[in-house]
Amino acid sequence: MVAVDSDAGRVNGISEADEPGWEVDPDDEWGLAVIATVGRQLKLRREAVGMRVAEFAVAVGYGEDLVYKIEAGKRIPRPEFLDRADELLRAGGLLAAMKEDVAKVRYPKKVRELAKMEAQAVEIGVYECNIIAGLLQTPDHARAVIGAAQPPYSPEDVERMVAARLSRQSVFERDPAPSLHFVLEEAPLRRQVGGTMVWRKQLERLLEAGRLRNVTLQVMPTNSEPHPGLDGRIELLKFPDGTAVGRSDGAFNGRPTHDLKHLRILELRYGTIRAQALSPRESLAFIEQLLGET
Description:
The chain is an alpha/beta fold. It contains 12 helices and 7 strands.
């Protein structure tokens, strides 16, 4: 979990949770380097125009302590902060141009790596046994799921992880579109995570995704026979060059694998699961039935 300052307060009527950025993941070397560069550039530009930290903090509308942290490379600035700083410090777009790399650093390293692989894959297969797949979650559903963790995350950490999860959904906007396959258990579909309205919108999102030409969505009924996915989720990603990567909670210590023998085992398990699940047409009809029950 990302560390959060304990001395949170309010500056100019804005709570620290509303102020720019998050703590940098100490294990993310690339992220640390990016934020250190941003901090140095910000400090150089501020000093070049002869503006003190206190003066700049008031002008940008944030706390002086947070400005020091950003300049020291200990805090990830938000995009709007960089835009405002670029304007105030007459940086000519230099600071604003860093938003793309900074946006990537916002997300945990593991999520970035997963998103990178998903962005390159031509085929993605996912079986989920306990939750709705992250690629299919609505913002409110994701917020409720992440917010239910124990010990609880801070509100700031929750929003960071929700943003990271939603950023992966850009896979649906790719052209050419990848082939996406999902198998979801019935039980998580019935669980009203976040309340009735959030649950309904999540079911509507599943119907929307399941009707896309490149998406296959299947539901595994609770009364089905035992299948190879009972010990955890399965992920399979295939790439244009013919290579693939897979992972399963119940195999190979849960770690990603490129080994051909391991991949064949995962493909066999995933294929068996898909064969036992409802057909795509039956699955969409089942979700529509759930919606009709409310």
